[in-house]
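User: structure tokens for this one?
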Amino acid sequence: MRRTRLRIRLLISILLWVIFVSARAEAHPSATEATCANCHKSKAMEQRETPMARALALPGSNFILKSHPRLTVRKGSYTYVVETHGDQTTYSVTDGSRTITVPVRWGFGAGAQTWVLEHGGMFYESLVSFYPAIDGLDTTTGDEKLSPHNVEEAFGRELSDDDKKTCFGCHATGTQINGKLHLESLKPGLTCERCHADASAHMAAISLKKLTPMPRDLGALSSEGISNYCGQCHRPWDMVVRSHWRGEMNVRFQPYRLANSRCFNGTDPRISCVACHDPHQNLVHNTSSYDAKCLACHASGSPLAPVPTSEVPKICPVAKGNCTSCHMPKVTLPGGSSHLTFTDHQIRIVKPGGPYPN
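Assistant:
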């Protein structure tokens, strides 16, 4: 009986010790346990539901493929099949006599989705992608002019080292170490650390009851600085110009299009990426919700810009609402990419039948 009581007391003591240690750990999380949500809960929780946070999907968490267990399309002489069983997906292309089949490890995109594949020690962009507009497969945007001559060429477009760093760097977090691609540390999607580069060091400091170092204050950037920062993935003005990306295809590059707007001067905070879009929240599709942003400049009595401007913004004589529906038209990509439509960020007076302005 005495031994039984001692054992019970010992078990109770161990249980209390475990509870005590756990409580201390919870009250003082280590650097690896600390997260941005500890202090910025609402922003962190909202950001997790954005397309940016879901920009890359790994096997087992790819909801597009799970909801479409078999996708197939024939393009010319080649048939493509993307097939999912449980948490595993394969991508296949065949000409009827030869077939290449590989597992899908990375799905790029929360809406339309393209796959980066490994084959023969090389990385490839899948030559077909999933498009919600047709609920199926078609040629990957940008690859419409490719004319494969064999199964190897039909499999996908080979990615250079720079292509790989760009693809993974814009769709995931922690993909580079010392400037080199390091997929072992990859976190799917854009987490807080992807934009707030010093967040990890800041969280480590917080766990030690320190505030510094602080993450870079991106809100202090000028409008041009914000465009260049967002342009790391959405493409800045100078990159589009140097690359000679002309025509409707460049509507995808919002910082470039915005910089071409007559009212953009690079310093007025009323016209910048974050003036209209909160990167921590889902994109707002209701056009009237942007009216207040437009009328911050184009309304009688609007405050002057904090920096000198070359001209006073004009007042629209046609309407006072749904401004973007007229001045930021929807543009559908041409040719084989016609399954995608973008809002043109080159703010202007649009004339019916007028050419697309580069």
